[in-house]
């Protein structure tokens, strides 16, 4: 058996490597050059090169000429990469609370610290976690596991 069909597991196949999301973070912060990404992540260049290649192949990043140096390509977010902004923001928030003694960076919204909230796009209501429940959509599976 291969385990529960799961979008989290599938996502981690794409961005779950140690260097993947920190490379995406750097592109989100406006660092498009390989050397900038390598310096700011601390990743070994051979591992980073492979990871960036994988992220391009997965459609998270794209490569195209740098505006100020068209002889060299830079890395840029695709629509799929831009959809990771919220994931990276939540990992930052979690890390600030549980993984570091003092936050090394803050997210600002205009003149104040960003305090995001989740709103249901369908109905416009603020989302209370107590109102959210999983619904299994894969035949042969329940929340407890496989039915057979």
From TrEMBL:
The keyword Transcription applies. It holds the Pfam family HxlR. GO terms for molecular function: DNA binding. Keywords: DNA-binding, Transcription, Transcription regulation. This is HTH hxlR-type domain-containing protein. Residues 6-103 form the HTH hxlR-type domain. SUPFAM superfamilies: Winged helix' DNA-binding domain. Gene3D superfamilies: Winged helix-like DNA-binding domain superfamily/Winged helix DNA-binding domain.
